[in-house]
Amino acid sequence: MIRVGTLIVGAGFAGLAAALALRAQGVDDFAIIERADGVGGTWRDNTYPGVACDVPSHLYGLASHPSPDWTRVFAPGAEIREYLERIARDEGLDTRIRFGTALIDARWDGDEWAVRTGPGHIAGPPSGSARGNRIPGAAGREDPASCPEEIRARHLVLACGRLTEPRIPDVVGLETFPSPLFHSARWDHTQDVAGRRIAVVGAGASAVQLVPALVDAGAEVVLFQRTPAWIVPKGDRVYGPEERAALREPSAAAHLRDELLREGEARFASRSGDRAAAAEAEAVARAHLASQVADPALRAALTPDYAFGCKRVLLSDAFYPAVASDAVRLVPSALAAVENGALVAADGTRHAADAVVLATGFASTRQPYAPLVTGEHGRSLDAHWSDGMRSVGSTLVHGFPNLFILGGPNAALGHNSAVLILEEQAAFAAALITRGLDVRVSAQDEAAYTREIVERSTGTPWVSGGCESWYVDSRSGRLTLLWPGTVAAFRERLARVARDLLEPSAVLTSEGALS
């Protein structure tokens, strides 16, 4: 058995931010477990062609670790992974991480968390109904009973990420498809796409990056689009040598980050339903589509029929030209079945393909780690969240003492960098852990925060914009993924939670210190 003050689960952005925040508070009694063989989280797992961030590079990083080395305005996925690896190495965190160690079970025993770990992948229910083992990540998990180890920790930080388990669509006969079939987040690099017909199922954030990259690689693409997305210009470009040299000056990099932060905060109005701002942003998206797609029938198929901001707004300058090219056949319908090797769309059309890529997103509203965590009343986190995730300050949960969840309930953003929220949560957790208190929140406080989220989101496109999105839990109709406010509003709200837990005079500073 191992005993540690704080156990962090996950070594992506959230896990590293938590470790650095503890260090900043003078806490060194912590350990990190990571089920994979390296750091990086979603940027380690997603290696599909074209993968990149849709937040500007100089804002998509930890404030304490600015990087002058970004090569593009929007960093490719591999650069982000390398950035996180560099932080772990330079800060000596890589020696504190137990790689290949998955969370199997965590239980509050009255005084501390008893955590069982095992090798390999997280031991939870498959994400979807693949009905077969050929889809990496959907089956073939390690036996949770093999070589378990117990870790005892007073505080438990779940930094597991919200986009970790691929969502497999419930398609009749999917497992009978005779050729390669895999999820975009489990890319099969043994497959040569050049000269082959690749079916891409889904038209969200991953597909918008993937489809142009497949076309560039010489593939023919059949794109199954259940719902089109609002897409605005991205404006990506390479940073020139002079720009990169200038950004090595800390004040220049800080100024750019502040400018990007303000631009992101300004986008909140258009995403949250401000009529004038939404109309202006929608006009930009429609003009972008019109300028890149000449065929009126194709434009109509690519035009959303729901409110701007209802689903994630995407950025791309390459998707529309790719779809308009002879290399892509758009099927404006979901994949409904696989029959005798043919892909059958919901509109009844049949299509052939040499391989199928499921760009169908992740199990987001029902987090894979939730069934593995049991609180003080013998109830799992998954059961506690049976009608959708809820919390206090998007970080603490009633009935789960000394548990901090980063990137969980209402901790995503639709207008700005989610790393900003993770940093606030990490500083908040570190400040409370430093005080040495048992951190508990009441059922009343959790219900009040849940009502607050409902009130903040009522009337917004996220819940009443006429679409189905991963922001909303279908079991309750509540907004459970997004924080329905600005980054500044989240910072202020989390500070109020800290004051309520400690004393009226306590103030959570931007550095995470309570004074």
Report on this model:
It holds the Pfam family NAD_binding_8. One of its GO terms (molecular function) is monooxygenase activity. This is Baeyer-Villiger monooxygenase. The protein is α/β, with parallel strands linked by helices. The protein folds into two domains: 287 residues, FAD/NAD(P)-binding domain (3-Layer(bba) Sandwich), CATH 3.50.50.60; 142 residues, 3-Layer(bba) Sandwich (FAD/NAD(P)-binding domain), CATH 3.50.50.60. The chain contains 15 helices and 20 strands. Strands 1, 2, 3, 4, 5, 6, 17 and 18 form an eight-stranded mixed β-sheet that branches. α1 runs parallel beside α12 and α12 runs parallel beside α15. The C terminus is likely disordered.
Radius of gyration: 23 Å
CATH topology of the largest domain: the name is FAD/NAD(P)-binding domain
The CATH homologous superfamily of the largest domain is named: FAD/NAD(P)-binding domain
Architecture of the largest domain, CATH level 2? 3-Layer(bba) Sandwich
**Form type:** globular
Mean pLDDT: 92
Structural class: alpha/beta
Distance between the termini: 36 Å
Main CATH class of the largest domain: Alpha Beta
- How many helices? The count is 15
Please indicate the count of domains: 2
Report the helical percentage. 25-40%
Please give the largest β-sheet: 8 strands, mixed
